[in-house]
Amino acid sequence: METVPAKTIVTNAKAPSAWFGARYMMNIYRGCCHGCIYCDSRSECYRVEDFDTVHAKENALAIIRSDLNRKTRSGVVATGAMSDPYNPFERETELTRHALELISAYGFGAAIATKSDLICRDIDVLREIHANAPVLCKMTVTTTDDALAKKIEPRAPSPTQRFDALARLAAAGLPTCILLMPVLPWLTDSGENIRAIVRSAKEAGVMGIYPAFGVTMRDRQRAHLYEALDREFPGLREKYAARYGTRYSCGVPRAKALWHLFSTACDQAGLFYRMRDIIRRYQRGYGDGQLSLFL
Length: 295
Fold this sequence. Notes:
Blueprint: E1 3-4, E2 10-12, E3 24-26, E4 29-30, E5 55-57, H1 60-70, E6 76-79, H2 90-93, H3 95-105, E7 109-114, H4 123-130, E8 135-140, H5 146-152, H6 159-171, E9 176-180, H7 191-203, E10 208-211, E11 214-216, H8 219-232, H9 236-244, E12 249-251, H10 255-269, H11 275-283
Parallel strand pairs: 1-5, 3-6, 6-7, 7-8, 8-9, 9-10
Antiparallel strand pairs: 2-3, 4-5, 11-12
């Protein structure tokens, strides 16, 4: 695997109360090989060339150790915003695992976003962190249909594998959450799909589901999505172009009705779906360095 230079890796979050209560952000890898047709991180503004090729950041663990050592306040370190921390190369590099070991050693919490069941490899480290600080394991799920997922997330683990991973994490006593995002217009925005995700989440012992009923589109991201729609779903590109044009934030048709269906299903299943409730639940019981910042 090739590397890219980095001066710092654990950085301050811009708005800690707005995104799962994280005070810090950490991205060890650059680029992603899941091939998801909708990924916002392809956008030009992020300046990631050759996005489908994964690179590790040079001297990542030494930099992370130094970054954590300099922090004057503890808090939750989030990872997975720009690249999946459990890409296939992680099986060999173990950079994410060793970074979590450092997070544990320095007394920080962790909030991980991934599409990979490889996260289960690190249950032991996550439980070690959770003994002293908040942990939230977030799994992106857009559909329960493995065949459809193969078209929209071609090289990511299947939804079946993801739900199995969520069940293992929950059984280990770790707080889990589904990122139901994006919800793709005319592809994953059916009531049947939303109900199936809520039902599967309940069966897996998931704590909550956080949704975004739509998709973002801009420059390279839009071009990549349209190319995939032409290939996998002929005729759908024209519907997207006609409805959304060059808009960035593209909500699904019938968003209000879908939200009502989703929130009702979550209430019936006992699942949290508002950001503030998810934050309060997974950070409950921890000290001033964590929970009090967000309430």
